[in-house]
Structures are given as C-alpha cells and as structure tokens.
Specification:
The chain is an alpha/beta fold. The chain has 13 helices and seven strands. It has two domains: 215 residues, 2-enoyl-CoA Hydratase, Chain A, domain 1 (Alpha-Beta Complex), CATH 3.90.226.10; 39 residues, no CATH class.
Amino acid sequence: MRGDRRAGDDGAIVAGIARIDGRRIVVVGTQKGRDTESNIRRGFGMPHPEGYRKAERAFELAERLHLPVLTLVDTPGAHPGPESEQRGIAEAIASAISRMTQLRTPIVTVITGEGGSGGALGIAVGDRVYALEHAYYSVISPEGCAAILFRTSEKAPAAARALRITATEQVALGVVDGIIAEPETLSDESTVTLARAVWETASAAFDELESMKDLGELLTARYARYREFGAFDEAPVKKKGLTGAIRSLFGLDRDLVGAGVGDDWMDEIERDNAGA
C-alpha cells in the first residue's frame, strides 16, 4: 500500500496483504533502513503522520475483507520534527490507536526491536502482544526519561531500570503475552529460523482468537485487556507534595534511589515549584 490519501507516502511504515502457510493476513510494520540512504528514505524507522494514516487504511481493509492483522514494531518513536507536528502527528497516532481498539478482526503484535513510546503504540493495540527476547517496550526512551526527570541523559541506566522495559519485565507486568527466543548469532539461516518462530507464534494466536466466533466477545476482551493495565494511587497529591507524587508515579523510592540516584534533582524541582 502507498500513501495516506491526504499528504503522501511514508517509508517508515509498510503495509499490505500477505499469504503465509495458506493463511491470508494484513501486515503493518515499521521499517528501518540498512544503510544511510535507505535509513533516510525510511525516516530511521520513525513514522510521520501519513504513516499512521496509511496503517489505518490497512486496518480498515483488513476489517472489510475479514482478515486478521499482524503488526511488527521496531521504532524508537514517532518522527519528532516540526513537519510532523504541522501535519498532526498526535492526532494521527491517537486515531490509529482508536481505530485498532474498535477493529472487528483479530490483531497480533510482535515487538521485534525498539518499541518506543506512542510511535510504537500507534500500531500495537493487539489482542495478543509478543516480543523478541532482546526487544524493549516503553512509554519513553530511558534517555528521554532521564533528560526530563534528571535533566541529564547520564541517568539513563537508572531510568531504564525504573521503567522496566525489557521483554521479561513486560511479561511480568502483563503488557506482553510471551517472549520469542532469538538465536545467539544472526546468519541467513538463523534469520529465517527466527522469522519462522515469529510466524508460528502469531499463527497460533490467530487460531485462538479466531475461535471467538462472536466479534463482540473479541472486542470486549481487547477492551478489558487495556483497561487492566497500570497501577495508580488515590492518595491526595497535596499530602504527598510534588516529590511524593513523582516518586509514586515512577516507583522512584524502590528503583532509582536503590540504584544510587540522589535527591538533589527532587530538591531542585521543589525549589522551582516554590518559586513559581
């Protein structure tokens, strides 16, 4: 598929119809390049708004043709440039997410490498989500988190530990349903073996999801899956103060302080807040 029928095409997202082992599916995925030229053409795997709108076209086609959807995610995040903002990147991601939540056909997502922020979630609202062994899935990159909270990217390792972004940790959190083992070394042969493992995992999930004859049951289960994510604290923010609220939100007392991160940055935030 080419283009979003509004602004143009986006090489960072590829989409189309496939037939694997006799099963017809619609595939949507992020695509990085292999060298400088192809990376530029593919936007380094960071989709523009037209990429997400092209993905929506593919989703709608899948629903019309009663085909399941397989999405493959490997992106550091959506394209952050001003041209993406001008063309409505936030709206495009939100629309894609909304469309996936209501899509009346099974969806399987596989995180194959980087699963960064809303750029990944825009094509990752699956009924089943799997990750390769060394993939990560996160609301924000560790570097971005560290830059916001600590004002230095040097704290990225501590942020990564607190974010719990690895495939194993995501399974423990219930965000990812399973891990697909990766070969110790990559070669032409092992790459084919890995691709086969990805497909066998996805195909088994499609078998399970397609056994739900009632599409209402499928949508109800998908809605319940995402409503159950996350933990929250109902204690009033005023009692905790800004520091307490941030600590609760990110689990900083347990993860970052234990990792040797001091309180200087918290003190600085509170001083700025008091001055404001």
